[in-house]
Amino acid sequence: MSMNRHPIEQEELMAYLDGELSADQATEALSHLELCPECQTLVADFRGVSQELMAWEVESPEIGIPSEINAALAERLQKREAAKIKTSWPRSENSIVTNRWVWAGALAIVCVAVALTLSLISRNRNRSDVRRTSYPSMASIEQYLMPDRNAEIALARSAAPESISDDAKILVLEWRGYETAIEGKNGFVCMVERSWTSPFNSAEFWNPKVHVPVCFNPAAARTILPLTIKRTEMVLAGLSKAQMIDSIKAGYDNKKLLAPEPGAMCYMMSRAGHLNDAVGHFVPHLMFYFPLIDKSSWGADLPDSPVTLNPQFQGGPEPITEFVIPVAKWSDGTAAPEM
């Protein structure tokens, strides 16, 4: 993988999957993965190989060579020696043992070659499967809906600690868009976003497996949530991406969509979400929204800085800058993996 095309190397992708990168490096990797189908395929390959290795059970070999193989090898060697007895010196017992181990070594090499061949075949099959798993257009609406309404409510609440989400308003996605499932008391709004809240150039913009639990604080509920609602309405109305982009631009021009209020933020601390096929539920984090500003004002993406510029609105029609800060615990209070 060339550094001219990708900001992260293959070794860093493997370290990312193993949870060995720092918080800013991991978020940078996530930002790149959301937009790079090639790296998404590579990550899926790494995960497939890792899963195969974890599931591979190897029986403990017996010490030495089975007696049947020993006998067959000895007989074969004796016949060869008898045929050559007139033209060569007799071989010692040590020579027979050496040849025996040569045969055993050759057998081991063949076994390794077969195993490597099967592994390559499996990897190529996995790569083909990943390439077939693309999302060029919207799936049927049924694939984006969660059939169990209570499960969607629970998933939405898992975005934030119970002390916040228990009193939050809960939205669920229905055929005609998001509807209120539970009225709230504290001004927060929790929901499960779908794939169309991704960047418009994301390879997984139409991925029906994407379920992103998010809980907006009151400021974000007034200024960021309406954007999610609008995107959803346009998707269900069958608008193209180009039409959606034009409509969003017009919405900000005519003030029907508002710039983020001061203090607008959201919780994304669920361990049960699915951000995309490459990263799964990622890590627990908070997101902060601003009108367009330079990322240097927050020290984002600098060495050892915990703050990262999120790519969700970069290059899109929304005049929004969004920062991400990882946190140490999931919403249920359990410790998150160290990064």
The total beta strand count reads 8
Q: Level of helix content?
A: 40-55%
Strand fraction band? 5-15%
**Strand arrangement across the biggest beta sheet:** 2-1-3-4-5-6-8-7
Distance between the termini: 23 Å
Which sequence of SSEs, written as H and E, runs from N to C?
Answer: HHHHHHHHEEEEHHHEEEE
Report the structural category: alpha+beta
Q: Rounded to an integer, what's the Rg over CA atoms?
A: 29 Å
SS field, number of helical segments: 11
Question: What is the global morphology?
Answer: globular
In round numbers, the mean pLDDT is 79
Q: What profile does the largest beta sheet have?
A: 8 strands, mixed
Poorly predicted regions are: 57-65, 84-104, 110-114, 126-132
Total count of domains: 2
Compact overview of the structure:
The chain is α+β, with helices and mostly antiparallel strands. It contains eleven helices and eight strands.
